[in-house]
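Structure ticket #2291
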Amino acid sequence: MRLVESKVTLYLTYTALAILLAITLFPIALLVLNALKPAAQIVQNPLTLPDTIRWDNFTRAWQDARFGRTMLNSAMLAASTIVLVCTTGSLTAYVLARRKIKSWKIITFYLLGTTTAPIQLFLFPLYFGFAKLGLINNILAVSLIYTALYSPFAIMLLRTYFLAVPKELEESALIDGASHWQVFTKVMLPIVSPGILTVALIIGLYSWNEFLIATTFLQKADRVTAVVSVFLLSGQYTADWEEIMAAALIIVLPIVVLFVLLQRRFIEGMAGGAVKG
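Resolution: structure written out below.
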């Protein structure tokens, strides 16, 4: 009886996973399908197979969206944000994990509040402030905004990793003559590296796909990000759908490839971050 119940449970589990997989992959499959079609066939029926494969959709999308420049802008923005968030987040998380702070509940409330607060609340003050300082169309300045937005999440996740590290490791390193900075860089960071990698992947994904701040603060043609350049492909009254689909697929591919290559480390990092702090 137990064997039958276990088999039924296993079949139900695999069925549920298959359904979830189909739901997850359907938008990507639809994107690939329509990226290879002419516009007329997309409008007629986006679910059919292409009559003729239009590889030139990708070359036109690359040229019209100026991906050679815009993807470089997105990469620079994501890389600078990752470095800033991982650096400041790991330092802050280490201090919060190792120091007894009486106002920890207030800090937790602040971190949760800043994580959930919509960026629209700060958009206009930020824009006028950046305009006064001459920081509009500055990629590094936009990465500072992203750092402020994403740091609370990084701090709360990395703090759980530092809490899981036994204090005896730090004490033994200090007894051997290491400074507090050496303990942090040579002992703690290698141990919590899966968490830092997880934060880097998530923050990189957020920065790569972010639209509202990028289109507000990066307005020059040579400062536009890849996501904004895809949006600019559609006109006010017309849209070249096969080109837009191809451009969207070009943007998605680097993220998918990166996640596939690092999925094991990413899953391990997320599982490690579930430790209760």
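Closing remark: The chain is about 80% helix and 0% strand.
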